[in-house]
Design brief:
Blueprint (H helix, E strand, L loop, with lengths): L2 H34 L11 H5 L3 H8 L10 H4 L2 H5 L18 H7 L25 H9 L1 H4 L33 H10 L9 H10 L6 E8 L5 E8 L8 H10 L5 E2 L6 E2 L6 H5 L3 H4 L4 H5 L2 E4 L2 E4 L22 H38 L4 H22 L4 H4 L1 H28 L13 H7 L4 H13 L1 H12 L18
Antiparallel strand pairs: 1-2, 3-4, 5-6
Helix pairs in contact: 15-16, 15-18, 16-18
């Protein structure tokens, strides 16, 4: 073979892969440029499928949150909770959180939101929609914040129909991260350690999550509507004026004599922690080292030359190679084993606190039944209030122990102490009324606990099922007629509850 022929063949062999590589790089650059281009999405577009036309990878990964579909009945696993929450919605129904895909569906299905018959009925206020849908900022923009937070939950049933999605966290024009709920901005400014206007991009990778993963209450706010009529809105408010700790927030509520509900058995003016993830996160090693929520819960991934954030939000342990092991040197098996051992210790303290506090409520009821006076009971009830608040604060965020193990154990320890102090005071009162040997009834199962608190469980289930077959279907039809409802948000979704 001639030398020139050999050279030609070798040249072709070398050039073909280079040409293919050049084409691939060009295509990847073109795709990345398309991703970086500013799309045409209307303001507060709540149907995430519209965003997916420009960001298919992010959308497809978000849709994978539907894999987290297990219903875990926490009341069944921890029946003491039904006693601790007697008279409050959580004693009816409380499941472990599922993926973002189910956030709206689970809010509608839970027994806590009741079985309204019309827009003016039901047990819950409109604020209970706040963290479940991008339709919330859309609706607030349309009717105003105070109007949105006025009335019953069922009032917005046909307007809030799309689950958590793109518009909750992104600006439709620039795609930059954005806070769409103003109560977070107000709370940061009130607390003062970081003004919202000073937030960096890294801060925003946490703050968009904080909109919903933080402690809040519904602040009663008077206002006058367009007709000149006086109204009262229950505005979502973060209680951070005194700081972020359990004690600082406890003080905030005590200073305002705020009460979430009065306990049905003990008559204690109670506080209910929601999900103070941010408050605990910032006290832990990850928060102190300026990691963001997205660093661990939405790690970057690559497909070819395209880099994007994985929107399958979930436990970092589900993708440990791309999350924890970026910084930690242990093997995956060793790392998970360490976390499991630590979690067992937290659960042990949590169950101790639950047992102590549930018995305190039952002992307080006995004291009331025997004729104890308010003057006698007030100190013990204050200990119950503070003890249960601290227990709830330490575990309600679910990931609190992972975020800040030392702080979680500290607060749990103080919860147990407060509960025991309450029981000592109650024992003195019971002895005064000749009941020193009183033993709390058995609440070892969900059924026994709900029977003790007088909860008509089957009646609640029947009413809920009727609501789901009637008014709930009307909401879907109305939303479809308005052009709001996106059927893709229900694709492959099975109806799952803990009560059916």
């Amino acid at each position: 073979m001639k030398k020139s022929s050999v050279v030609t063949i070798v040249s072709v062999i070398v050039m073909v892969p280079l040409l293919l590589l050049a084409v691939s790089i060009k295509e990847n650059k073109a795709e990345q440029q398309a991703i970086n281009a500013v799309p045409e999405i209307k303001k507060f577009e709540s149907k995430s499928a519209e965003w997916s036309k420009y960001y298919p990878r992010q959308y497809d990964s978000y849709m994978l949150t539907r894999k987290s579909d297990e219903i875990k009945d926490v009341l069944k696993e921890e029946p003491a909770l039904a006693v601790m929450w007697a008279g409050y919605g959580f004693s009816k129904d409380y499941n472990a959180p599922r993926g973002h895909y189910f956030a709206l569906e689970d809010n509608i299905n839970t027994l806590r939101t009741g079985a309204p018959l019309n827009p003016q009925s039901g047990p819950m206020p409109t604020a209970c929609w706040t963290c479940k849908s991008p339709d919330v900022p859309r609706l607030i923009d349309e009717i105003g914040e105070l109007d949105f937070y006025t009335g019953k939950w069922a009032r917005h049933g046909s307007d809030i129909v799309n689950p958590l999605g793109c518009a909750d966290c992104h600006d439709n024009k620039t795609m930059k991260l954005t806070v769409t709920r103003d109560f977070l901005k107000r709370a940061l400014d009130a607390e003062g350690s970081m003004k919202f206007e000073d937030a960096t991009h890294q801060d925003m990778r946490t703050l968009v999550c904080v909109q919903c993963h933080a402690e809040y209450y519904f602040k009663k706010t008077e206002w006058t509507d367009d007709k000149g009529e006086k109204q009262v809105a229950g505005v979502v408010t973060f209680p951070w004026n005194n700081g972020f700790s359990a004690e600082a927030i406890e003080k905030y509520y005590d200073e305002r004599n705020f009460v979430d509900w009065t306990h049905k058995l003990s008559r204690t003016p109670m506080l209910k922690a929601q999900h103070p993830g941010y408050e605990t996160f910032i006290t832990g090693v990850h928060g102190k080292n300026n990691l963001a929520c997205a660093d661990c819960h939405m790690p970057y991934v690559r497909e070819g030359g395209v880099k994007y954030s994985n929107h399958q939000v979930g436990s970092p342990l589900n993708d440990i190679q791309n999350t924890c092991l970026n910084c930690h040197s242990a093997s995956e098996e060793e790392f998970k084993a360490t976390i499991a051992r630590k979690l067992e210790r937290k659960n042990e303290l949590s169950r101790t606190a639950m047992d102590v506090l549930a018995k305190a409520h039952l002992e307080a009821k006995k004291a009331w039944d025997l004729g104890a006076t308010e003057e006698e009971m007030t100190p013990a009830l204050q200990d119950i209030r503070h003890g249960q608040w601290r227990w709830d604060f330490s575990i309600a965020a679910h990931g609190s122990f992972f975020h800040a193990p030392e702080e979680t154990l500290r607060v749990l320890g103080s919860a147990i102490n407060k509960g025991q102090e309450a029981r000592l005071k109650l024992r003195t009162i019971l002895a005064k009324y000749d009941a020193a040997d009183y033993q709390a009834p058995d609440f070892s199962t969900k059924e026994k606990a709900q029977q003790i608190i007088g909860l008509p469980f089957q009646k609640l289930v029947e009413e809920k099922n009727n609501f789901l077959k009637t008014l709930r279907q009307d909401w879907i039809k109305d939303a479809t007629d308005k052009g709001l409802y996106d059927p893709k948000t229900r694709e492959k979704m099975e109806h799952k509850t803990s009560y059916n």
